[in-house]
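Q: What does the assembled structure look like for these inputs?
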Amino acid sequence: MKQSIDLDTIHSPEDIRSMNIEQLTALAGEMRAALMRKLSTRGGHVGPNLGMVEAIIAMHYVFDTPKDKIVYDVSHQTYPHKMLTGRMKAFTDPAHYGDVTGYTNPAESEYDLFSVGHTSTALALATGLAKARDLAGGDENVIAVVGDGSLGGGEALEGLNYGSTLGSNFIVVVNDNDMSIAENHGGLYADLRLLRNSNGTAEPNIFRAMGYAYRYVHYGNNLRSLIEKFRSVRNIAYPVVVHINTMKGMGLRVAESDKESFHYAGPFDLQTGAPLKTAPAGTAPQAYTDIFALHMLERMKKDSRTVVLNAGTPGAVGFYPERRREAGRRFVDVGIAEQMCTGMASGLAKGGMRPVMAVVDSFIQRAYDQLSQDVAINHMPAVFALFHTGVLGMTDETHLGFFDISMITGIPEINFLAPVCRQEYIAMLDWAMEHADMPVVVRAPGGEVVEDDSRELLADYSRPKYEFVRRGGKIALLGAGNFFYIMREAADLLAESGVECTLINPRCLSQLDEEALDTLKDYDIVITAEDGTADGGWGQRVAAYLGSSRTKVRVLGLPKKFENRFRAAELMEACSLTPQAIASIACEAVK
Amino acid sequence: MKQSIDLDTIHSPEDIRSMNIEQLTALAGEMRAALMRKLSTRGGHVGPNLGMVEAIIAMHYVFDTPKDKIVYDVSHQTYPHKMLTGRMKAFTDPAHYGDVTGYTNPAESEYDLFSVGHTSTALALATGLAKARDLAGGDENVIAVVGDGSLGGGEALEGLNYGSTLGSNFIVVVNDNDMSIAENHGGLYADLRLLRNSNGTAEPNIFRAMGYAYRYVHYGNNLRSLIEKFRSVRNIAYPVVVHINTMKGMGLRVAESDKESFHYAGPFDLQTGAPLKTAPAGTAPQAYTDIFALHMLERMKKDSRTVVLNAGTPGAVGFYPERRREAGRRFVDVGIAEQMCTGMASGLAKGGMRPVMAVVDSFIQRAYDQLSQDVAINHMPAVFALFHTGVLGMTDETHLGFFDISMITGIPEINFLAPVCRQEYIAMLDWAMEHADMPVVVRAPGGEVVEDDSRELLADYSRPKYEFVRRGGKIALLGAGNFFYIMREAADLLAESGVECTLINPRCLSQLDEEALDTLKDYDIVITAEDGTADGGWGQRVAAYLGSSRTKVRVLGLPKKFENRFRAAELMEACSLTPQAIASIACEAVK
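A:
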């Protein structure tokens, strides 16, 4: 008899612990169906969640959560976990779809231990929980759940290496679906394949080599297998890896067959997988990632020194599978390994290539030390192309594109360029790829691509040189990157009120154009705006430089705060980042 | 017949390539003797260099350097390499001892490919060289030399994982001396021991698991074994690990028996190993590292939640072996793995402990993303104790303590405290360890410990609150950390000239005490000084805040530059960081 489960009766893991296997199987079916409905309507991390339904049910069934502690890597696979831990309605009731974030979130539930969004952190966080337990004399299980893709990241490998020395209960569930966001890259993946193909019996075994006991679950979407194996390690007194072989996108044919596209997807048709919102075919590229990727493919034809690097997010920087095929060996995805990717860029430059590392803004911060040591100290002409920047980038607190200006401009010897429009973007990229004799960051403007033929392009961006777009009055408006256009609108507003002003596109944010700033020293007010935190950013450097002159300076930018799921327009308004607000500040100052 | 080699006849590796094994052996002996003379006189990385004499001779003998490319991890083991590549005099002639830096340095020689100083970078850099070679159709060997300690770092493990996928010549020499700076920590070290004990035959084998062919050299200080093995991999067409078992400190008894003390040492007696400069026994601790370590040992007795974490540099933060033994399991060295250490701190805090991660200033930048994601977003009360900070810290371009203020204060939710003296240091540490409900950085002042009973200590440092040490006039001097005392001297100078001023110890550098700053808005000048880069630092935040007031602001700090082997006094003078210069700036402004 087919069981039927009413999902809305599940309020906590306790509600599933008395179920039999048939009921649990029915539960998994209902959960997967609910997930498909929500994912196809609202979008989200499709493949990771569909692949982990059974494993998450089995963990909550076997382990005594929340006393037993589960830390999920990235935590983009935790929709089933949220369903079982008091948040079912957010997956069954469209009116409540927006109630939960896409990641674990301690503000939502005691079952969520950390706010997580970047990869490769779960092992390290869990070692701390295990050590705290051991010092306090506790007896709970500590479980780190990490995907095969995440496992290649430095913090995960460091954590894997250290965790086995704890000498106490430390359970690492390796969720191996043979995929990162895109395909995996790295020697350990051949070993994982060997283990999968030998039902976990082969040598070498990376986990044993790292000091762990080892268990393998070949049917990682089979509840009975999972439950049996998790029971066998519950309350284990030493570190163990449970390697589970799961199917990314399980149960949704389109996601099973196109794992990369359905890692994360917007709303889609459940039958065909077709996106519900598409741009008409043949329209011009509308994202800087597309402009970048197509331009690099062109450059590769003309300049054989061109190499594009990426760390595990090729689609997010415009290199979809067909473009990767076109680029061939001149596109290098190193897997989720930003540190080594940055070091490799330096090595490529030393070897005579012209490398560009394309990276999602929030992830470049995983390579601060490498930018400093491998690249900047060595003056290597490697280029870093940042995407999804600023307030119009990602809106989860873990993925903000707010911090790169402050972070990178603090490092010596890196030339940080902030183009305002497509034309300037290409000019800066071309200069960086052909002529630069230093490391260069080119920050793609946030938001839609702006076409602007009136910007003055330079043949050489090695020295800071501000573009004076308009000169006059005793008010100067300096707008960096896409915020240049807010300043231009403010200038227009002022002009309409008969107030003259000077309008500047600074182009470079890592060094000051002192000659240009010297001409502003007798101004009444200088206003800067940048699409990153004001705190520690470029505008504060301007303020400090002009600090000993008579001019007043007002620095506008984003708050130094982990904003979460914000609305860009509201946040900008709160930060006076509107033409109207800027025009008023200016008028106020000259009154 | 014993061969004799005149070291001063060796100008390049070509000069050793026609030698026979007896001559090479004699060469190694002479080089080791010269190294001992220099190291005992001048100090330096003793153990790493003595252990690598034979391997470096063998590499330059077998490989066609500089066409073949050797990248050394950390590069603190490259004194023998420098001897063989045109810089012998810097090791044989005391008058030239200062001619070379302690690391590879492209400015010194074409044989030095990168300026390196941080660990774990060689594999990543070498993957870039190998990939560049493959794209350009070259045929040179690319060799990465990495120590067992460095191998546990995230970038190294990422590089190890990726390197095996190159599918072409990529030779990884693992220099395994069974030691990091201190003892190793991590599961892979048990595997290395297993491999050493089985003459390289055991399974599991971490290198095979990562996709490499594998060779083992048991006598890693035997030229014949090394030469034979390196010859066997020369021009190899696929990635291979050559695992060599070396003796750290080889040939110097005191260094062989006390590997930790002789990893890096100042001048010492060659027979006894005794330091040539010692403080008299029984004197008070004179370094903040000692004050920290002793205070933490006391705290551990009173508060069982206290845990001190460190990533591979225990001695450099005051935790010498006897103190580690005293701390027992409340001191955790995770090996060279700052990322995972930072994540673990967060996990410990979540588990109810009060963790403090003690870290050399220049190495905290290896954990930017973890400070942000694992710690700050999660509001975890983990403490970060920074040492060897600022202009009085380390002076190699790769180890500067200049960047932490700019880097960390850009991250939201972290409270960055800058004590000025021992008393304030302890007060801030105690508050952070007991009461803070947020992440706290406590930056040990650079230079000698200052005793100062006159500072006003607070019971609560959670909100920024500036200490007004002196009030008056229209000049305000704000001195952060140890630079407070420069400001106090400047204030004294001004007082001597009859000029009144306000003197402030800001205590906190991550948030502004706006109430305090508001009282300065009608001042003639506000001068800030901090022991870090002015660019992106705390003073610029002050300048921006006061930007719309009438007061002028002058921000003093260190240059955004990779200064190398500088003299602190000269650099400070060049940056107007002297009481005299500051007093003049002040007087100039009020004239």
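Chain A has 23 helices and 16 strands.
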